[in-house]
Design brief:
By secondary structure, the chain is of the alpha/beta class. Helices cover about 50% and strands about 15% of the residues. The strands form 6 sheets. It has a 5-stranded mixed β-sheet, with helices on both faces. The chain starts with 6 loop residues before the first helix and ends with a helix.
Length: about 550
């Protein structure tokens, strides 16, 4: 039943051979193919008894729910240290897949056992028992290849399953502060938590309307409000369900918490999946480019409007470019952060112009710091900028109205033609990838030396080829839908801009949030000429 053992070798040390058993189980393995830990122990003990060895329960090294692809396993590592230190002479396992599923690493391990003259015995391997020190290993490479192929196939199927669920918005990773995740018919849904909705609204209001930075907002949340931090809230929910929250709990709001909320599009009702992907088994997740993300708008009830969210992202970008946190900016200036010296390119500081009457104004920050060595005086009153802005908006509004009335069909047709070119390019790329898959399949089939290997290869590539064809169909449908949505958004943006123009033109005190939404830059030169650059550019929209 068992392979012959060289008993003389084991008697060389006076019959005191240290024999241990090793068991491993991974929960993601096919339930028809894996043995339980207890079953593995029984097989190992039966073999040991037939060889007149005794293996007690404390002589077993067990890694439960650990993948065989990695060799960084707690019990396995502890066992191998003792093997290398001469404390263990024989390791018995059920089969080679329990030792590991990484082809190259397993073969290296077998060589290590041989070089150390330590034995590794696999009770159920290659139709019988495999003894590293006494049996030939002509076909052991095929076994390790199949073991690795199996775990890679499992990993690929898991990734494909996750990919499919991400593409259909059926997988929502992690928690989102302010929302509760509820499953209905195995489909995750997000619902607003009423007690947390106000804190999200406060954070966006303080950032967009008041112009506060992340640090200042966190200080306000800690002193003026009593909202729980994300980790505090999750701990509370775990305790309510009788569970232990194992993560670190931060009781004070931090600027990182505020930043994470401000940049998360989930609060606009949009779910984005497939942001990351693992490139290999047990590998680190890498970020994917935006064009590979799956975007589901109107997925759930929003807390913040898309306009406010987009404005927050523009403010973030502008502050990053200027390398300022915004904590020292004077908040009572309408155009702070928008004015720029046209001569030297530096920002314009809010100042008080002291003449007969003190008035708010702006001047070149480099001039204020280094005098005429760096730039020139650009002093301009804030009320003069506002007067010029209103006249500018009146003129621009007239242009917008004319453009809305004169959007021509030819422009839309040209846009559609551009999309057709992009579609053809994407299809060509997918076709090339499909050809590469077929060629690779032919190569692997040619190198396969048995029917089982050929069947595995055929099944693997069949799924990959099917996925490529599905992607081509998906791109076609998606592009048609995007074109329709794009045209609708252009018209809406133009109309919304005009409404904002009217509000600024009619107001005595302009709304800073609307100013942020409309104005990209206000350029002022040494002659105090004022130029406005809007975010809503007519040519770009059309």
């Amino acid at each position: 039943m068992y392979a012959n053992i060289d008993q003389e070798q084991y008697q060389a040390k006076g019959g005191k051979m240290t024999v241990v058993g090793y068991c491993r189980l991974s929960r993601d393995e096919d339930k028809e193919n894996y043995s339980s830990i207890e079953e593995q122990k029984r097989i190992i003990k039966d073999y040991a008894v037939a060889c007149n060895w005794i293996i007690k329960d404390e002589d077993f090294y067990i890694d439960d729910n650990v993948s065989g692809y990695t060799f960084n396993r707690p019990e396995f590592s502890k066992m191998m240290e003792k093997v290398k230190g001469g404390e263990i002479d024989v390791v018995i396992a059920k089969d080679l897949s329990r030792i590991g599923r990484n082809n190259g690493r397993v073969l290296v391990l077998i060589d290590e056992f041989k070089n150390m003259q330590k034995n590794l015995i696999l009770v159920s391997e290659m139709g019988g028992t495999y003894d590293v020190l006494n049996d030939r290993d002509d076909t052991i490479g095929i076994t390790t290849w199949f073991n690795e192929r199996y775990v890679k196939d499992c990993s690929r199927k898991t990734r494909d399953h996750m990919y499919s669920k991400q593409k259909n918005a059926r997988l929502i990773m992690g928690n989102y502060y302010g929302y509760e995740k509820v499953f209905k018919d195995d489909i995750p849904m997000l619902y607003i938590i009423d007690e947390l909705k106000p804190v999200i609204e406060v954070i966006f209001k303080l950032y967009v309307e008041n112009g506060y930075g992340f640090q200042k907002i966190s200080e306000i949340l800690n002193t003026k409000y009593n909202y729980p931090t994300p980790s505090e809230y999750y701990r509370m929910k775990h305790l309510e369900k009788g569970r232990v929250y194992r993560h670190k709990v931060q009781e004070d709001w931090t600027k990182d918490m505020v930043s994470n909320i401000l940049k998360n599009e989930i609060y606009t009702g949009t779910l984005i999946t497939h942001k990351k992907r693992t490139v290999n088994i047990r590998g680190k997740a890498v970020k994917l480019p935006k064009e590979e993300h799956f975007v589901f708008e109107n997925h759930h009830e929003p807390i913040i409007s898309k306009e406010i969210f987009e404005l927050a992202q523009e403010i973030r970008k502008k502050k990053n470019e200027q390398n300022t946190s915004g904590t020292n900016t004077k908040r009572d200036y309408y155009f702070s952060g928008m004015c720029q010296c046209e001569d030297c390119g530096s920002g314009m500081s809010g100042i008080v112009i002291r003449r007969k009457v003190k008035e708010k104004g702006y001047d070149c920050s480099r001039y204020r710091q280094f005098s005429t060595k760096a730039c020139h005086c650009h002093e301009v009153k804030e009320k003069d900028i506002l007067i010029h802005l209103k006249e500018f908006l009146k003129f621009t509004k007239k242009q917008y109205l004319e453009e809305i009335q004169n959007i021509k069909i030819e422009i839309k047709q040209n846009k559609k033609e551009d999309n057709k070119i992009k579609l053809r390019n994407n299809i060509n790329i997918l076709n090339e990838e499909y050809k590469m898959l077929v060629n690779q399949k032919i190569k692997e089939l040619a190198s396969a030396n048995n029917e089982i290997a050929r069947k595995i290869i055929e099944n693997t590539y069949k799924e990959l080829e099917k996925e490529k064809v599905k992607n081509i169909s998906y791109l076609k449908a998606l592009l048609q839908e995007d074109e329709k949505k794009h045209l609708e958004e252009k018209g809406n943006k133009l109309r919304n801009s005009i409404e904002y123009f009217d509000e600024i033109i009619k107001s005595e005190v302009p709304n800073r949030m609307i100013l942020q939404m409309l104005i990209d830059k206000i350029y002022i030169n040494r002659d105090k000429m004022i130029k406005f650059e809007l975010k809503t550019d007519i040519e770009k929209m059309i």
